[in-house]
Design goal:
- The protein is mostly helical.
- 57% of the residues lie in helices and 2% in strands.
- The protein has one domain.
- It has a two-stranded antiparallel ribbon.
- Helix 1 packs antiparallel against helix 2 and helix 3 packs antiparallel against helix 5.
- It starts with 13 loop residues before the first helix and ends in an 8-residue tail after the last helix.
């Protein structure tokens, strides 16, 4: 997302916009298509209570349309970072010797933990009555989502999703390559969460370690009921705040 050597850090909007749209768009399409085809091929396990014979194709067009708007929103946020010079005040660093080599890899884990926290609270906010009705309802139109629903947001929510990611580069030192790896992991896990199939072993929800992971099953329950299980990568905040679905075991 942020390759500072590719274009000037201020005064340029089009180049960073096109760069972000290309990266986000191609990565989303590739990963979501793999997830969608894997589900159609019957890989993994069907969710308990899933609809037999559910016609996913009817929903793909809507999910793709809103995902396209989301990619544009992500591009605009990226363009603003460069065009208005905000990125100059971030903690992005290009010189690998600026921080120890181990921090490169640890920063990826730190970004995932920070993002999981910010996402949980944004998601909780999106489920307040007013915000749900005017923004988040778009995402929940996919009651039984496909992998293409990973980016299916109202444009206003897409901006919010972009801003909680951008916030990370102002909170901790981040190398652009580490940021790219983090975002790729994020997209992959988001696609998995919406693909409609489960790949974790049976009993993961009751395992001492697995109970802290968010799963496709947990997120499918969130879409089906419209509440509980607000986390992205983990259920840590859900368990701490008492928002895990009681039926999720």
């Amino acid at each position: 997302m942020f390759i500072l050597e590719s274009f000037p850090s201020s005064g340029q909007f089009l180049a960073p916009f096109l760069f972000a749209v290309t990266i986000y768009g191609l990565r989303y399409l590739a990963m979501a298509t793999v997830g969608f085809l894997a589900a159609r091929a019957g890989l993994g396990r069907a969710h308990a209570g899933g609809l037999a014979g559910f016609d996913a194709w009817r929903h793909v067009r809507r999910e793709l349309a809103y995902s396209g708007l989301t990619v544009v929103a992500f591009g605009l946020v990226n363009a603003a970072q460069f065009g208005w010079g905000w990125v100059e005040h971030s903690q992005l660093y290009l010189d690998p010797s600026a921080y120890p080599a181990w921090w490169f890899w640890l920063s990826i884990l730190a970004m995932l933990l920070l993002h999981d926290t910010l996402f949980y609270w944004l998601h909780r906010a999106m489920h307040t009555r007013w915000l749900f009705r005017i923004t988040h309802l778009v995402h929940h139109r996919s009651v039984h989502p496909t992998a293409y629903a990973a980016y299916s947001f109202h444009p206003a929510e897409a901006v919010g999703e972009a801003l909680i990611v951008v916030a990370i580069i102002y909170l901790i030192p981040v190398n652009p390559l580490a940021f790219l790896i983090f975002q790729t992991i994020s997209t992959a896990y988001n696609v998995y969460g919406h693909c409609g199939r489960e790949f974790y072993p049976r009993g993961v929800a009751s395992h001492w370690l697995g109970r802290w992971f968010n799963t496709s099953t947990a997120h499918a329950a969130h879409h089906a009921r419209g509440r509980h299980n607000y986390g992205l990568y983990s259920l840590a905040w859900d368990r701490l705040m008492g928002t895990v679905d009681p039926a999720y075991k």
